[in-house]
Write a structure and sequence with these properties.
The chain has 186 residues and is α/β, with parallel strands linked by helices. The protein has helices spanning 16-30, 45-49, 56-67, 84-90, 116-128, 156-174, and strands spanning 3-8, 34-39, 70-78, 81-82, 102-109, 133-134, 138-141, 145-148, 151-154, 180-181, 184-185. Strand 3 and strand 4 (81-82) form a beta hairpin. The longest helix is centred in the last third of the chain and has 19 residues, at 156-174.
């Protein structure tokens, strides 16, 4: 079965974006996939910003990307673009760091005015990293995400379309050969 790495690019500990990333990871795990969740905000800031690939945490995060068959990029929208934190991490990856992978770009934001940030800002980066298949991106309005206790609730207006996007991502994963690490099949 395929492995999926969710990469959350929010700087906030109480991020709804991070929680939607976890929600997707759980849904994919329930379908038999192995999932991991990389929260970029937990990486050492100095090493991240100085692109120190010798730092053990940065090196391990880059290796997680290499080992995954699929990537979910979850980012809040700031100033009509994806987060700078996510950009800093993506800049560390090799030129074709997403080669052979299925990628699901996902963003959250306060207004539908920012919905195109995914297609005009994030999707070109995904393609420049060599993604085999970037599935239909998805934008969630902040008002469609709420916490019920510790659980994330997705409003009905977004829940169905989000489930469809996750299903399409799963189908794209089914067509991805397992990741190759160091020239060997993983």
């Amino acid at each position: 079965m395929s492995t999926v790495l969710v990469i959350s690019g929010s700087p906030s500990r109480t991020s709804k974006t991070e929680r939607i990333g976890e929600h997707i990871a759980q849904r994919l795990a329930a379908s038999g996939r192995t999932t991991e969740h990389l929260r970029v905000r937990t990486l050492p800031a100095e090493a991240l910003l100085s692109a120190d690939l010798t730092d053990p945490a940065i090196s391990a995060a880059v290796e997680q990307v290499a080992a995954a068959d699929g990537i979910v990029l979850a980012t809040p929208t700031y100033k009509a673009a994806y987060s700078g934190l996510l950009k800093s991490f993506l800049d560390l990856l090799p030129q074709f760091g997403f080669a052979g992978k299925a990628v699901l770009p996902l963003a959250t934001g306060g207004s539908v005015a920012h919905v195109l940030a995914i297609d005009y800002a994030l999707r070109p980066v995904v393609h420049s990293l060599g993604a085999r298949h970037a599935v239909q991106s998805f934008f969630l309005l902040d008002k469609h995400l709420s916490l019920v206790g510790e659980e994330l609730a997705v409003h009905d207006d977004s829940a169905g379309p989000l489930a469809d996007v996750i299903e399409q991502f799963g189908k794209a994963l089914d067509g991805v050969p397992h990741a190759t690490v160091l020239g060997r099949s993983a």
